[in-house]
Each structure stands twice: as C-alpha cells, then as structure tokens.
Write a sequence for this structure.
C-alpha cells in the first residue's frame, strides 16, 4: 500500500538515519523542504522530494497538503497513561491551599491512585486507559512510553503493564513500557521500606522480566520516597534483569539522583525541576537524555525545568507530558511544546526537536521514529493551513492538527 502526500507547504524535521539525538546549538536547527512530496509505503517512509522534481507517480492514493505542514509525530517518552479513576478531589484541595506533598503525606497522591487501581479489574482499566490513548493519538502522539507504578503489588503492577502492552497491540502504536514498582512505599510497608524493595527487586522484577512486560526500570528518587542508595539498588537489579534505567529525579529536591542514574547508564533522567551544577556536569559526561515535563510544572505550580540552561550547557533535551492523574492530567504534547516555549524559553525549533527526535531517543526509538527519514515509521502530523511551524506553540490553545498518520495509515 502506497500513499502520496503532495503540495506539502513545509516538510519538517528531515534527518539522516545516523542522527540519534540533537544537543546544544544543534537544537536550533530544524531541517526542512518547502513545497514537497512524501511517499509512504506500507508502514514506512519510502521517499520524498521537491514538487518541481516529483516523479510521475501513477494511480497512487494521494493526499493534497496545500498550505499544510507535515512533521513526524510527537514522541512522548514519559507517561503514566494507565491509571484508574482520577484525582479531581486533590486538585480542589490544592486550590484550597494544600500542597502536593501534604496531600501525599495524608494518604492521597500515588497511594490514592494505587488503591483505586488495585480494585479495578484489568478489562475496566483497559477501557479507561484506551480512551486516553485514543485522545493523545488524535493530538499527534505516534510513540509513547507508559509506566507502571500505581499497582505497588506484584499482581497490580503486572496488570498495569499487561494493559499497556495490549494498548500498543490494539492501536498499532509503538508503546515502550517501564517498571516503576519503586514509585511510592505502599501502606503495608510503611515501616519496612527494605521489605518493599526486596519485593520490587525480587519477585516483582523477576516476574515482569520473565514475562517480557517491561523495557525499562524507573524509581522515584525523592525525599519521602526513595533515597539515592535505594535508587542504586533498584537500578542495579534492573541492569541484572536487562532493564535499562529511566528515572524520576530532582522533582522537588536535588539529592544526587542524576549522578546515580548516570552511573547506571540511564537512558533518561526525567523531571529536573531542581537542577545543580553537579547534575549538569554529570550529564555532560553521559549519553543520558534529560527530559523536561512542563505540564507537571504547570499543573502543580512548581518551577519549570531549566531547559534553557540545559541546552546552553551543550546538552540535549527532550519534552514529554508525564500524563498521570496527580501531577499532569493531560497527555497533550502540543501543549507541552507550547509551554516549553512560553515558560522555559525554548525556541519553536528547540521544542520541536525535543518533542520528536530527542523524545524518540529517550525511549530507545531513534532508529524508527522522531524524524522524516527514509525507512523510519510513517508516523506523521499533518497540520491545518497555518502560516509557519512557529504557529504551533504560538497558537497554544488552538487545535492546529488536521490529520494524523500512524504506520502509514490515516487515523
Ligand atoms: O511523574 N513524581 C512522581 N510521579 C508522577 C506523579 C505521581 C502522582 O502524583 O500520581 C510524576 O509526576
Ligand atoms: Fe512521571
């Protein structure tokens, strides 16, 4: 099956297959072709070029893209999209003055979501989660990472990861899964964190690895959650089970989670709302992708990740949504891109690079997603007729996407 897109006003983010990520000043560049055609064959990008030199294609299914921009789908490398119910009440509690940490300390937060998820049958959890996935696909997401971490028992963690895997199969979208058993200490282990870590690094991880349910391992390294020593323990167990690290670090405090993650060759370190000079230095000597989650900062009214400083230090940066019921009940990558420009002072070029090729890198998908490259997946966003790509973050409240293509097929 072939599909031809013609009269594309701008074909954006054209990269050679060798580009795995872009860093520092490279992030200001967004290679493009004006007045272009793009040919898809089955689920991959076959070829592209300038309209003036388009071969004489015969009898092809064709889509006219006059005035429209075509770019690779968003790569959302950090979500908790599989969850049960919502935490609207905590949202109101925060409006009325309680902090995220105060709510968590009184049994709300992650523990609240875990209680709900444990009581929700797998089919119901799937039904709730697929609505979210359908929505983010419409919003242009073409590859997504989904974490466990609202189960906190072996059965419930496995239930979450099975749902995440099944979502990928049903919707024909690339889903990478991450085991986040070390997300919070469940009430049954309040005075026995070591006991819970024994479970996470033992039975839970073994079963999950044996069933091939996870690609990565994660830990919430934060005061009141897991220490740097706990982080080493979880990441080391992950390495033993073939699960590379993608960690939650520096959301509220900088306690050394970045260096610890880098030591374990983490693929990414995510959050980084609080960042020290030492953290930047550790990242400069690594292949680890820093990931900012601006919708979490927006929703919780906490500082934004210093993305400008990260890029100016010569580092790469990826953007993700952190879609979850507590700190970011939105999986809208368009809004994440706009917020990064508005609040973190990224240029549109930097934000788009962060949300495509660098997002792909942060979930180990640079070889198949994140750019217009011959042989990569035909996952595309076709915009409405807009004046330029800078209009995407500029008109932040508008729906600027006209159509999306997943695996070569119009959704
Ligand atoms: O990435 N910070 C840790 N975990 C999630 C939120 C967890 C929750 O509040 O449910 C995050 O923000
Ligand atoms: Fe998160």
């Amino acid at each position: 099956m072939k599909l031809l897109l013609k009269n594309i006003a701008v074909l954006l983010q054209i990269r050679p297959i060798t580009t795995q990520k872009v860093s520092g000043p490279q992030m200001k560049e967004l290679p493009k072709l004006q007045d272009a055609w793009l040919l898809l064959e089955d689920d991959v990008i076959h070829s592209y070029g300038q309209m003036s030199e388009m071969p004489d294609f015969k009898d092809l299914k064709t889509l006219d893209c006059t005035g429209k921009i075509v770019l690779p789908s968003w790569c959302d490398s950090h979500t908790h999209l599989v969850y049960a119910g919502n935490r609207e009440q905590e949202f109101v509690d925060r409006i009325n003055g309680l902090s995220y940490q105060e709510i968590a300390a009184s049994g709300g937060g992650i523990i609240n979501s875990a209680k709900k998820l444990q009581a929700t049958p797998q089919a119901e959890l799937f039904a709730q989660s697929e609505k979210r996935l359908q929505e983010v696909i419409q919003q242009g997401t073409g590859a997504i990472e989904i974490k466990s971490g609202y189960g906190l028992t072996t059965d419930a963690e496995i239930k979450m990861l099975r749902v995440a895997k099944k979502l990928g199969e049903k919707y024909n979208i690339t889903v990478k899964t991450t085991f986040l058993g070390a997300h919070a200490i469940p009430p049954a282990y309040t005075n026995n964190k070591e006991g819970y870590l024994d479970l996470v690094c033992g039975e839970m991880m073994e079963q999950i690895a044996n069933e091939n349910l996870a690609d990565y391992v994660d830990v919430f390294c934060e005061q009141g959650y897991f220490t740097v020593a706990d982080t080493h323990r979880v990441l080391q167990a992950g390495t033993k089970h073939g699960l590379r690290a993608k960690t939650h670090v520096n959301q509220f405090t900088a306690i050394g989670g970045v260096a610890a993650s880098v030591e374990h060759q983490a693929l990414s370190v995510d959050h980084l709302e609080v960042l020290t000079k030492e953290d930047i230095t550790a990242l400069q000597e690594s292949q680890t992708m820093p990931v900012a989650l601006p919708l979490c900062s927006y929703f919780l009214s906490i500082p934004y990740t210093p993305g400008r400083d990260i890029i100016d230090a010569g580092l790469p940066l990826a953007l993700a949504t952190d879609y979850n019921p507590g700190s970011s009940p939105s999986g809208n990558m368009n809004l994440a891109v706009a917020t990064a420009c508005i609040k973190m002072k990224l240029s549109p070029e930097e934000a788009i690079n962060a949300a495509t090729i660098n997002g792909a890198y942060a979930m180990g998908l640079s070889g198949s997603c994140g750019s217009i490259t011959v042989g990569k997946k035909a996952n595309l966003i076709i915009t409405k007729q807009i004046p330029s790509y800078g209009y995407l973050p500029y008109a932040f409240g508008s729906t600027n996407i006209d159509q999306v293509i997943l695996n070569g097929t119009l959704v």
